[in-house]
Amino acid sequence: MNRLLYSGALSLIILGSAGAAGAQNANNATQSNNAHPNLTPAQQQTVGTGLASTPSQSAPSGAQPQVGDKVPNSMAAQSMPHNVGEQVPQAKELLFIKLPDRILLIDPDTKLISEIVTEPATTGSTSGSQDRQDR
């Protein structure tokens, strides 16, 4: 009888642990989705346009920040401006660092880069205009 009770208690402990682990994995997946907003191209353009007048900073020498990287301490992340957060709610809670050629979106809790927004190339349309003028 004691052996039966012991087996039952052990089974409950194992099942309880598995259930807690499953819930934790589901919670981590939710956090990952929040950390990686996966903005649409239109949303990325809105973020880029909204931050266009923000001064950019340079990345540390030789650094090529990637999604999932921790932000170097030498770089100063800023809060998302209210107007950009209203237009792109998925980016409202994120921090950002504007570099000369891209914008790093950062999870404020982990300080990890969650998305990189490349700024639209404005030189392409300008050079096209110059090419037409040169002809």
List the helices and strands and how they pair.
Layout lengths: L1 H34 L5 H10 L27 E2 L2 H6 L7 E4 L3 E5 L6 E6 L4 H12 L1
Antiparallel strand pairs: 1-2, 2-3, 3-4
Description:
By secondary structure, the chain is α+β, with helices and mostly antiparallel strands. It is 46% helix and 13% strand. The protein is built from four helices and four strands; from the N terminus they run H-H-E-H-E-E-E-H. The chain has helices at residues 2-35, 41-50, 82-87, 123-134; strands spanning 78-79, 95-98, 102-106, 113-118. Strands 1-2-3-4 form a four-stranded antiparallel sheet, with helices on one face. A hairpin with a 6-residue loop joins strand 3 and strand 4 (113-118). The longest helix is centred in the first third of the chain and has 34 residues, at 2-35.
